[in-house]
Every structure is written in structure tokens, then in C-alpha cells.
Amino acid sequence: MSVRIEKVNSQMLQTLSIILQREMPSECGLVNINAVQTSSDITMAKVYYGVLGDETQTTMAQAWIEKHTKTVQHHLSQELRHMRRVPQLRFIYDEGSQHSIRVTQILDELKRQEEER
């Protein structure tokens, strides 16, 4: 991956995090952008995101993102005006954050059980 693409990915990750924090309703839980992978010609970007919240909040967040992708794309274009071309966004739900939360919960439960003995 070129240095230019890495910079674009980093800048998009930061900017998208701010946009989603600002635009997304709080009922959708806390959405975090885990990674951005931009194509070499900067026409497409895969945005991997996770949701910190229960299943209802996750479903609401996924629906909101699907419905408002074009709005988020527009806000991103406004924020990154210095770029000649802003990639088309494709949001992909990343279950990794949910798995790590569950593992932490299990470890906490095991630790609590061990302390009770």
C-alpha cells in the first residue's frame, strides 16, 4: 500500500468518525470506525465499523448507516474538499468489536467466580 493511500485511509477514518458521532442519533449506540481500505485509484473505500451497544442498537445503527450513506458521503466530500476525488463509501459491519466485548465479559465472569472460591 502506498504512503498516499495510507494517508487517505487515516484521514477518512478520522473524518468519518467525527461525522458519524455528529450525525448519528444516540439511540444507535456508539459507532466506531475500525478501518478504512481505499482502492489504489481512490474510487472506492470499504469502511469497517462496529457498534458498542445491544443487538437493538446494532440493528438500528446498521439501518441508519444503510439509509444515510449518501448523506455521510456528502459530508465527507465537504470536509475533504482538498481532495480531487473522494471515494465512494461501502460500509461493512465488523463483528470483531462485539466478539472482543463478549470475550471481556466472559473473562470478567470467570475472574469473579474464581474470587468467590
UniProtKB/TrEMBL annotation:
Q: Which GO terms describe its biological process?
A: maturation of SSU-rRNA
The GO molecular function terms of this record are: ribosomal small subunit binding
Which InterPro entries does its entry note? KH_dom-like_a/b, RbfA, RbfA_dom_sf, Ribosome-bd_factorA_CS
Localisation? Cytoplasm
Specify the domain of life of the species encoding this protein: Bacteria
- Would the keyword Cytoplasm be found if you checked this record's keyword annotation? yes
Q: Does the keyword Cytoplasm apply?
A: yes
List the GO cellular component terms: cytosol
Grouped into one coarse class, the protein's main location is: cytoplasm
- Briefly, what is this protein's role? One of several proteins that assist in the late maturation steps of the functional core of the 30S ribosomal subunit. Associates with free 30S ribosomal subunits (but not with 30S subunits that are part of 70S ribosomes or polysomes). Required for efficient processing of 16S rRNA. May interact with the 5'-terminal helix region of 16S rRNA.
Give the multimer and partner information. Answer: Monomer. Binds 30S ribosomal subunits, but not 50S ribosomal subunits or 70S ribosomes.
The protein's matches in HAMAP family, at most eight in alphabetical order, are given as: RbfA
What protein family does this chain belong to? Belongs to the RbfA family.
Q: What is this protein called?
A: Ribosome-binding factor A
What's the encoding gene here? rbfA
